[in-house]
Automatic annotation (TrEMBL):
Listed name of the protein: Heme chaperone HemW
Gene3D superfamilies in the record: Aldolase class I (3.20.20.70)
Cofactor(s) needed for function: [4Fe-4S] cluster
Pfam families noted in UniProt: HemN_C (PF06969), Radical_SAM (PF04055)
Entry's family note: Belongs to the anaerobic coproporphyrinogen-III oxidase family. HemW subfamily.
UniProt function note: Probably acts as a heme chaperone, transferring heme to an unknown acceptor. Binds one molecule of heme per monomer, possibly covalently. Binds 1 [4Fe-4S] cluster. The cluster is coordinated with 3 cysteines and an exchangeable S-adenosyl-L-methionine.
InterPro entries named in the record: Aldolase_TIM (IPR013785), Coproporphyrinogen-III_oxidase (IPR034505), Elp3/MiaA/NifB-like_rSAM (IPR006638), HemN_C (IPR010723), HemW-like (IPR004559), rSAM (IPR007197), rSAM_sf (IPR058240)
NCBIfam families documented for this protein: hemN_rel (TIGR00539)
Keyword NADP: no
Membrane-spanning residues: none
GO biological process, one term: porphyrin-containing compound biosynthetic process
Secretion signal span: none
Amino acid sequence: MSDTGKTGLYIHWPFCTRICPYCDFNVYKDRGADEAAWEEALRADLEWWAQKAGATLYTSVYFGGGTPSLMAPSLARAVIEAAAPVAGAEITLEANPTDAERERFTDFAAAGVNRLSLGVQSLRDEALAFLGRNHSATETIKVLEFARGAFERLTFDLIYARPGQSLDVWRAELAEALALAKGHLSLYQLTIEPGTAFEKAVARGDWAPADEEMTAAHYDLAQAMCADAGLAPYEVSNNAAPGHEAQHNLLYWRYQDYVGIGPGAHGRVRIDGQLYETVALDKPGEYLAATPEQRFALSPLTGVEQAVEMLSMGLRLSEGISLARYEALAGAPLNDRTLTEMAGDGLVHVEGDRLSLTADGRRVLNAIVASLV
């Protein structure tokens, strides 16, 4: 069990109706999954982790993917019941804003899901076509309005800094999104990931990503508009009204323990006081054919490795990290001179035991982490 008292559960559902050109996740075309076989496998995983690590007190559950809303709501219910999360646990389901999936939302809510994460990505039809999405803007708005009433909590994603997306276009789209939001928005810069269709398109010269100056302008505009709407930037890419923060994702960013099951799922699990990185077999057929013990590779993490991961994740948060926790893990404190120089440059803020990034620092998060470690 986690030494913080909180342990999350992530379930990866690897199937999608189509593969988006920007996606580098472990996903496969949905060809009709054997729900009974998956229920048996996921239940067996939960039982195995309970025996292996005492992982039973789940404070959050997250169905990710892929498109987990393609699974039968009865399967989600079975997994939730087997996991038996603590009372009041946040239980999140990722979904796409299509009419077909909307028809299942009520059943997912009845199964125990209390937070929906919708992959909207854009409220413009031309952008949705470019991003390879299988929903329209009109359909999206209808689904969002329905979901607002069906779930206690709702969030959705938007992708910005798309090719040719002007600030005026982004301003108008974000204004519409804020009017549809229910306390939370996730805003992601379009990035070109290795091995994706977009990487090949850029390499061919089909189109060029937005430059750094335009990307920064999109980010700054989004932060200003979200702040005006009462959605604070609690994480680099996530804004929320007080009390609407994504509890499961906070567990990642605060570097707390979580079990990951399903093809390709990662985890951070503590066994007899030692924290392990866990990685599951990624191919669905191989996953189903294996036993739980065969499905997961476990690698112990040194204190320094944990400190670096904690720093990388925690500095994404506006609240930052505990310097004492870093020192306890790494066996040495962060360099005071480096911190002083960064503070003088307006990139970091140190107050007592807390280290956090300024607004300027969040723009160069990766560079700061590299310099600190």
